[in-house]
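sry for the spam today, last one i promise. struct tokens for design, 254 residues
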């Protein structure tokens, strides 16, 4: 299949690399940019061994904003941070919200239990198929259609959840959004906000923060931004500029 397209670079997640793909890459001029999100230290060593097998590994990239890109100075390849973005192309279903709170998580947290005990109408939704104690399981594709069903969306969990694509999608599509980080991840939540959002200029009216947050996401955290950064990492600045221009034309138009 790769021969049919003749790419210069293959972009993939490390979990999807098969022995056949590794063999092909080691015998071709096709380079590799690899998503290493979630990789353990042992798996990173295995990825590093691809270089010894003749694979032209350009770099790795992680969606995890907590990943320390300088954690191993002796690593043979560099890992960059490439944050998730809002998916602007999934189907959306704007509607008048029901007076129900949509609570999203992976595991049942203390914050979720307090919501259940409050007796307020709610749905507990899990983003993991193996979790117990939830009303139903869901995924990002389904959420794009149901976020606007709820009067409020609550995201409960650690940084792996509140710094994921879910957060950016919910900012754009939920009627109201609140993040309830676990006690241990509260410092990470504060750090995440500092990383992704710009402080409003001193003296600027901060009354409509919802619109300001949405505008910052549309400006800085879209698939166009993510693609442009990837292209820059690959050294294709010309295509990166075209991608940024496309973002301005498609996303930032009035």
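last one done:
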């Amino acid at each position: 299949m790769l021969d049919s397209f003749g790419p210069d670079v293959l972009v993939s997640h490390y979990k999807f690399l098969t022995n056949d793909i590794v063999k092909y890459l080691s015998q071709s001029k096709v380079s590799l940019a690899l998503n290493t999100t979630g990789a353990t230290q042992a798996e990173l060593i295995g990825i590093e061994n691809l270089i010894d097998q003749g694979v032209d590994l350009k770099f790795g990239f992680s969606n995890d904003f907590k990943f320390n890109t300088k954690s191993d100075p002796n690593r043979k390849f560099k890992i960059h941070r490439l944050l998730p973005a809002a998916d602007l192309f999934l189907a959306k279903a704007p509607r008048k919200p029901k007076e129900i709170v949509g609570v999203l998580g992976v595991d049942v947290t203390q914050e979720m239990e307090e919501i259940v005990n409050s007796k307020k109408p709610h749905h507990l939704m899990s983003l993991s198929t193996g979790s117990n104690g939830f009303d139903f399981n869901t995924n990002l594709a389904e959420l794009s259609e149901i976020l606007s069903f709820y009067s409020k969306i609550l995201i409960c969990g650690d940084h792996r959840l509140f710094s994921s694509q879910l957060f950016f999608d919910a900012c754009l599509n939920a009627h109201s959004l609140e993040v309830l980080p676990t006690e241990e991840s509260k410092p990470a939540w504060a750090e995440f906000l500092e990383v992704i959002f710009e402080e409003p200029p001193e003296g600027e009216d901060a009354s409509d923060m919802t619109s300001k947050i949405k505008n910052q996401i549309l400006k800085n955290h879209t698939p166009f931004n993510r693609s442009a950064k990837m292209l820059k990492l690959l050294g294709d600045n010309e295509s990166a500029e075209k991608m940024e221009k496309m973002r301005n034309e498609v996303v930032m138009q009035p």
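The chain has eleven helices and nine strands. ok im logging off now
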